[in-house]
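## Example record

The block below lists the input lines for one assembly entry, exactly as stored, with component labels intact.
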Amino acid sequence: MLEIKNLHARIVDDGTEIIRGLNLTVKAGEVAAIMGPNGSGKSTLSYILAGREDYEVTEGDILYNGRSILEMDPAERATSGIFLAFQYPMEIPGVATMEFLKVAMNEQRKARGEEPLKIPEFLKRVKEAAASLSMDMAMLKRPLNVGFSGGEKKRAEILQMKLLEPKLCVLDETDSGLDIDALKIVSDGVNALRAPDRAFLVITHYQRLLEHIVPDSVHVLYRGQVIKSGDKSLALDLEANGYAGVIGEAA
Amino acid sequence: MPAVQDTIDRVRKIDVDQYKYGFQTEIAVDKAPKGLSEDIIRFISAKKDEPSWMLEWRLEAYRRWLTLEEPTWARVHYPKIDFQDIYYYAAPKSTPGPSSLSDVDPELLKVYEKLGIPLREQEILAGVQKTDASELEEPSDNVYKSGRVAVDAVFDSVSVVTTFKKELAQAGVIFCSISEAIREHPELVQKYLGSVVPTSDNFYATLNSAVFTDGSFVFVPKGVRCPMELSTYFRMNEKNTGQFERTLIIAEEGAYVSYLEGCTAPQRDENQLHAAVVELVALDDAEIKYSTVQNWYPGDAEGKGGIYNFVTKRGDCRGDRSKISWTQVETGSAITWKYPSCILRGDDSSGEFYSIAVSNGYQQVDSGTKMIHLGKNTSSRIISKGIAAGFSQNTYRGQVSAHRKATNARNFTNCDSLLIGDQCGAHTVPYMEAKNSTAQFEHEATTSKISEDQKFYVMQRGIPEEEAIALIVNGFVKDVIQQLPMEFAVEAQKLIGISLEGSVG
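Predicted structure tokens for the full assembly:
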């Protein structure tokens, strides 16, 4: 589903190269965990996948379902099925969460040539999805992410993911700022979405999240490259021994 | 925000610089000769069959105007206006004055149809029938259940028709053109005209007093709640013609009225002058809500053409516990010079000003309000949202003052500016003056740019760039949009989206 080939990318403003020859393949149905120390390029990778303009790809390619996405803007990537759950979701003052959901869902439907959702159907979907994440409907009347707690923001991200039904879900440090109960709710939400035609890229610092969202593969990112890949036991190994050993091995 | 989707659809359909109302109508007109003189004023007065006191009033204003100089303190720049190069009167030949709908020239009816303005009484304004999203909306208390709106249609210099007059009359409400009011209700006009904006007030108000041609008159008697929204649609059509409208609204003790004003003009290379005066009078316990959606032609992408909009609007809270509320959505005009104000004369009276000013291209906006606290325990509230895009300059200019006897005067001001792109400017010029130590004034101001982070986040959900910006901007102005009667709120949101078309890229 996702094939990243020898990707090199730098920050447009100052030319700093962050991604330096990254290779990664994720198959449909797979949950791939990306781990790595601070500054290894994990969040940058998620932004580049989503099409953020602050980064420039200088070499290599990103293929999604066999097609390069480098020329697509963020909205086009989103409608093609790529979803990024942000580490720090943005506040959108004055735009009720509910309204935002409606606009986003209908924009994506429009891009696929479908009719906008009828209001009762829309409300039904939102109510179901919110209930599964233990979210109060009253919260959805508030402006998106404005005054939300860290946990509420992350839940709102998963809610959007559920409703938009993407095919490639990128979760950027979704566990940061969550207490154990919220972590459980968010993880259950993600697990419920696991499907043979959907892939996940779970970016995290800690093994903790991977106890709840059990990955099929684990990849260690360091200085903009995948330096080691393995199964879930690799995550346990990192938890026990730290990154130093893996980094030393690669060097 | 039910209109976001609509905004998006509209924005997509419309090309850059497509001013939707820019068409011109070929209609036989009766014009005064070009230029301004006492004879022209006599001509206008005679055309309108005015009593002699009205002519005298005009002439006095004209003589005063000759001694005045054009104001230059606003942050707007334009070539000097040649006041002798303007037609001061132009009226469709077929319509001698306000008449019943069946007498109106079908060509004129077509114009209003094209503008989406209902003149047939069984029709209602577009946007009222909300089939969609109503479950998501908080109920609004300013919606009239009937959904009907009475309309006064002013075309160049005359009112062509006023609807629902009979029904309003049953409630005791007078709603007609100002020309008709001068003839039919001279005692009311003489009592109130110029009592809020004196003929000597300022250069443009004085000019208006001399040459005003038409506008609306509203009188809501004691204790009456006006049974429907009242509205006036101004249309400038003739080339090189100025529009000088005059509106007077009086709410007697305990009365309530909500009034809407809309305006459009054809797309032309030359600049056209629009200098209006609006006066509101609220007696004890009365409330007037005045909303404007200003969509005069803003000029083209190079800044050529467009309306010069120099307007004096003022409300007098003359009675105790009276209330006047201005809401404006300003998207049009090449130059806007406009400060709807409140004189808080009665004790416990209150004034409000809610404004959205959107500028794009080479538009220049200098707009704001004055809140003059004279009575005791008076309060005022100012919420201003300026959005600048393209090469435009957008200034909020406001004055809040409390006079010596205005104990416990309170004001809250919030001015937010949003910049789109880096070639435009937003400016905030607040003046505050308290001559009474018990006055409490609060002022908040912010200027922000739509952040790349916000835009990226919204686009990541599948919302294309222009729609993403429209969504963020509509969120930014929501506090003000909520103040508009629902019929206009939907329209206003669409308009904001369209006005910002082409502002990114």
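Chain A has a mean pLDDT of 93. DSSP finds nine helices and ten strands in chain A.
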